[in-house]
Amino acid sequence: MKKIIFVWLFTFELVTGFIVSKSKAQNCIPVTNLEFMTEMKVLNGQTTDQLKLNNLNLWLRGKCVQSGQAKSIALLFQSDDMRLQYCYAAYSALSDKENYYALFDAFNALSYAFLFYDFVNENIAETNTVPIPDSVKLFPDLNYPSPVSYKGMTGCNLPMSDNDFNLLVKPVVDAQGDVNRATAATQFVQSNCVSMAQLMMLSTLIQLDLNRQKFMKQNFTKCYDMENYPAAAQVFSTQSYRDDWNAFAAATIKSLLPPPPPPVIVCTVSEQDMNAIITQLNNQSFASTKVSTAKTILAAKKCFTVSQIKSIVKTMSFENDKLDVAKYAYDYCIDKQNYYQLSDVFDFSSSTTDLMNFLKGKQ
């Protein structure tokens, strides 16, 4: 699980009419349930966030509210900007400041929750009255795969470190809405080599499964440890999306694998074919025609053993023709290491010597 706290340095002293108090807890009058419910009805009747904020400016003076009440009020705002301004002011009026983090859930965008956290952190540092939580969760607790010692198919060189990821992901977090976040996340992946775990984290910033799935599919081949894809099914809330993701990733990886080598073609000339070849050669009336026919057959069939070539050479009537065909047949022999055995077909030692010199030149 990756946890991040972004730090923005800023000082707020006045927010839309509310004076932000940096002093220690002050005396105030707790708001009763009746007062709270009455104020909620009033706020529901306001047509704009600004009117709600103006009303609260007057109502909160000298009062204390509980964190749960403050959160309920925060949820009435339509805009995260106005909601943040209200939370700045409401913090000084909290009677249980140690529970201030309950207001985080009121924001639609995580970036605003971080801004509120930093504001509180600044106040805590000066007042030392409220404990600071260890961290703010940005990504859900999932079983994230590790790219360490990964040996499968890769979509990029080496993934960025977790520290770099945590620092650079801020623009994605700050983006508003699924479309903008998906665009920012895609740009992030295109500019960096990310692990499957980091791709999963980016996807969880996108709310709808449909948009999340589109982002994952679009950027899958840019991920380092692609074959860790089964773990990424966790980011989807329904089984149909998980099944679709696994099928897509498996098919994509299969399509990227190199094609299998072509089947080995066994190159042979059957005994039946050899009998027909010998018969055809013996039926030739002229020596020159027999030589040309033998060469044509050798080039066409291509796959002759030394023993078969020997049978063809023996059909030649003259020594020169035997030597000519023996040399020509060399390129179509499948067991060239035995080619010296052709010396048996010659009547003169000079022909054997000529063939051996030919074979030396082929080595």
Structure explained in plain terms:
By secondary structure, the protein is mainly α. It folds into three domains: 14-127, no CATH class; 162-256; 271-362. The chain is 53% helix and 2% strand. The protein contains 17 helices and four strands. The protein has a two-stranded antiparallel ribbon. A hairpin with a 2-residue loop joins strand 1 (14-15) and strand 2 (18-19). The longest helix is centred in the first third of the chain and has 18 residues, at 110-127. The protein starts with 13 loop residues before the first strand and ends with a helix. Residues 1-26 and 128-136 have low confidence and may be disordered.
Please give a handful of descriptors for the protein shown:
363 residues, mainly alpha, 3 domains, two-stranded parallel sheet, disordered N terminus
- Give the percentage of residues in beta strands: under 5%
Total helix count? 17
How would the global form be characterised?
rod-shaped
**N→C terminal distance:** 64 Å
Overall strand count: 4
Number of domains: 3
What is the helical fraction, as a range of percent? Answer: 40-55%
Protein structure class: mainly alpha
| Rg on CA atoms, Å | 42 Å
Biggest pleated-sheet summary:
2 strands, antiparallel
Strand order within the widest beta sheet: 1-2
Unreliable residue runs: 1-26, 128-136
The pLDDT mean sits at 85
| Secondary-structure element order, N to C | EEEHHEHHHHHHHHHHHHHHH
